[in-house]
Amino acid sequence: AEEVLATIRVTSLWRWRLEIATLKLKYPSVNLVRANDGRWNIESLLEQARRIPSAPTGKKSPERKRARFPYIEADTGRINLKIGNEKKVFALSEADFSLWQDTEDQWRMRLKARPIRTDANLTDTGTIKMEGDWHRAATLHATPLQLRLWWEDGQLGQLTSLAYGRDRGWRGSVRGSAVLDGTPDNLKISLDARLGDFRRYDIATSESVTLQLHCDAQYSFSAHLVNGLGCLSPFGGGLIQIHGGFGILTRRDLDLSISAENISAQSLALLLRHMKKNVPEDVRVSGMASVAFTVRTGENGEQLWAGNGQSSPLRVQSSVLSEPLHVDATRWHLIGPGTDQFTAPANLKSSKKDAGKEQLPQPADRAVAFEPVTLALGGPTPTVLSGWFARDNFLAELKGEVELDRLVQVARLIGLPTVSGELAGDAKGRLQITGRWSEFALPEVTGQALLHGVTAKFNGVANPLKIQSAQFVADATSVSLSKAVGSFVDMHSALEFSATWPRNCAPQQSSDDALCGADFNVKADQINLDELNSLLNPRAQKRPWYAALANTVMGSSRKSLPDMYAKGQFSTSKLIVKNVIATHVFGNATITPTGFALDTVNADVLGGKFVGDISGMFTGSTPGYASNGNIVMIGIANVAALTRDAWGSGKVTASYKGTAAGWTADEIIASLRGTANFQWRDGTLHHMVLDGSGKPLQFKAFSGKLELAKGVLSISESKLQAPKSIYEVSGTASLGRELELKLERDGAPGFSVTGTLEKPKVSQLNVPDTQAALK
Question: Fewer CB under 10 Å: which end of the chain, C or N?
């Protein structure tokens, strides 16, 4: 102790026998030590107090032969725990303690302290209070004693940190009390505990769960044995009971029975809502459940387990269900080590007849397995649910035919993550749900199924996707859809596609969120760009007038692309862009919530080929686009045919890059900007005549540089190689085919071309004076 204050009894001085009235310890530190032989250091102190004769503390007059026992008190102390030579992290802090002798053979004490861990900063572990008395006896183990303990204002999260060294994620207020009465070798214990507002750390609900427990038992310190245990806990209109006995330091004399009778299913649903995230608050379940288990030590020291349970038919209602879910009555059995003498559920048995069939995986430890139970999930026949749950983990298997929208509803009912958007259709197969109880990890769903008649509606996509058939597979690393055949409603495109999504992916660990997106491969017989625009462009999608008005008034806007990450390959036999048809189109695509990128796009178009990249960004109020690439041997006659006038012929090869912005085709065309280097070979401009021969302009090569801005093409650094002359060409040509061109040549008059591409006007340019003088 930092400070010790002893107060002397003045009356004792008259008899020349010094007595201490009070002994006050300031900031004392006490070590409670359990030696290797099992004895505690406090035992010797109590035995010494028993042997030394002393008078009661409160006796007024001194005695000749006996000193009065002092009143001992400690203020703001600390009580440490040692086992052998090892000092434990557990301690009692801020301890106030007092001890005195109340009568001739009785001592009394009081204690108030706060439990702590020396390796953690805990502030809400509550307060422990203890008061009691003990009497003088021949031996310590025969000492009559009575102790009363209280634990108040403890928070469950802090108490789990106290016990385990880390917060286990549970919340609630803890209160408890205990009474110990008897002798150390025959000690009666009565315990009451209450856990209020029990829940998971990240769950907040309007309803509160309170758990209570009362236990009575007898304990022998010398035998380290608890017997006569009887615990009762009212819950859900029923009663949970524990009876039997067990050894503290060893597993000998283990004999316990645990039962829960007539527990309402609604109370279990309420408990689930406080333990499992995303379970709807309006779940209502009618039905009852009961269970009973026993465990005892066998002759060879092994543990023998037995147990079973049952539930009545259940009816589940919630707003996430279109109609109530009915679950047939079922029975449960305990399986695993030490339970071989008990019959396992039928779905866990294996026989020669079932040798070729997939069996349900067995638990590694003891588990409660439930017999197969049927669920009505919209299929032509009921779906079968089977599985087990153990101390650390669980497994459930669903086998049969289901309606997908009903399956999604049930997944949302039990708090499992589901796909965004709407999903309907039929599936046949098996799914397994596995997980661990600790760490709040999401369960893992694996399995395979055949899908048919599926309709999927995605956010940001105008029309639903109709899938005629597909194969679904989910394993530990990915989820995939293969051999899928279908189309979007109102689109004349038959699709064949596959996609794979990675599991357990953490995009925050990478700067590229697309790493956690889907990998896909899509083949289409044809794609109409106008139909695709109506599918994905929110400005082109048909919406009711009140939706547009609400967006205007509320200032909201819809995303132009689905909220997804995906990358993969696409191909189509025919791509229709207005009156231009491209064939054998293929390339790579990357889609994000803010844009798309098409790279290495190949296409046969207008008698030639196109290879290039196209991207779009939707981060602002107006989408922006960029493209670069090459066109090879495009037929000018095919281009002219689009204008319904055969104004030219030949083949053009060019490399380009450009940008645009807008929601509509007119906006995009008006905003086009770019540059290109071109080469036009073996060409003819059928409406353009430069001399009096009346023959159209023919040329072997026409090459140069183009720049597009505000709908006008500017031609520069260009040369046209005609049969008799080489011209330098400059000027402009609008996208409306209006011309302002000059064709100039050395030593001879040039030409000015105006008008339109279909009706050009050609006039001769004067030769500069300097050139005339030279001639």
Answer: C
Please indicate whether residue 303 or residue 24 has the higher confidence score (pLDDT): 24
Q: What is the dihedral of CA 542, 548, 550, 551, to 10 degrees?
A: 100
3-state SS assignment for residue 601: strand
Interacting residues of 554 by C-beta distance below 8 A, sequence separation 6+: none
Residue 112, pLDDT > 60, answer yes
Rounded distance, CA 388 to CA 365, Å?
11
- DSSP string computed for 320-374: T-SS-EEE--EEEEEESTT-TTSPPPGGG---STTTTSPPPPPPSS-EEEEEEEE
Q: Considering the entire predicted model, what is its pTM?
A: 0.77
Q: Distance (Å, rounded) from C-alpha 208 to C-alpha 191?
A: 23
Under 8 Å CB-to-CB from 724, ≥6 apart: which residues? none
Structure token pair of residue 308: 């079973």
Instruction: Please report the beta strands in 638-672, taking only residues with DSSP state E, as ranges in sequence order.
Output: 648-661
Give the torsion sign (CA, 87, 91, 96, 102).
negative
Kind and range of the H or E run holding 295: strand 288-297
Q: How far apart are CA 19 and CA 6, in angstroms?
A: 10
Q: How far is CA 502 from CA 231, 450, 477, in A?
A: 48, 20, 6
3-state secondary structure of 311: strand
* Residue 600: C-alpha distances to residues 590, 597, 611 (Å): 12, 10, 6
Instruction: Decide if 625 contacts 615 (C-beta within 8 A).
Output: yes
Please report the sign of the dihedral spanned by the C-alpha atoms of residue 751, residue 754, residue 759, residue 761: negative
Strand 29-34 to 71-83 pairing: parallel
Positive or negative torsion for Cα 414, 415, 421, 427: negative
Do residues 402 and 378 touch, judged by C-beta distance below 8 A? yes
**Strand pairing partners for 34?**
40, 83
Nearest-angstrom CA–CA distance, 55 and 63 = 8
Q: What is the pLDDT, as a whole number, of residue 609? A: 97
Helix (H, G, I), strand (E, B) or coil at 773: helix
- Give tens-digit pLDDT for 629-682: 999 999 999 999 988 889 999 999 999 999 999 988 888 889 999 999 999 999
Q: Read off the pLDDT of residues 175-207 as tens digits, 9 standing for 90 and up.
A: 999 999 999 899 999 999 999 999 999 998 888
Q: Identify the three-state secondary structure at position 2.
A: coil
For the chain, the distance separating the N- and C-terminal CA atoms, rounded to the nearest angstrom, is 123
The confidence score (pLDDT) of residue 540 equals 65
Would the CA dihedral through 346, 347, 349, 350 be positive or negative? positive
The C-alpha atoms of residue 462 and residue 558 are separated, in whole angstroms, by 11
User: 277 near 203, Cβ under 8 Å?
Assistant: yes
* pLDDT at residue 535, as a whole number: 85
Amino acid (one-letter) located at 87: K
Range name among 179-193, 247-261, 535-549 with the lowest pLDDT average: 535-549
Share of the chain above pLDDT 90, in %: 59
Q: Which residues of 717-745 are buried (b: 16+ CB within 10 A; e: fewer)?
A: ebebebeebebbbbbebeeeeebbbebbb
The single residue listed with the structure tokens 């309606």 is 403
HEC sequence for 315-330: EEECCCCCCCEEECCE
Q: Please give the mean pLDDT across all residues of the chain.
A: 87
Cα distance between residue 617 and residue 592, in whole Å? 9
Taking each continuous run of H as one helix and of E as one strand, the counts in the chain are: 10, 43
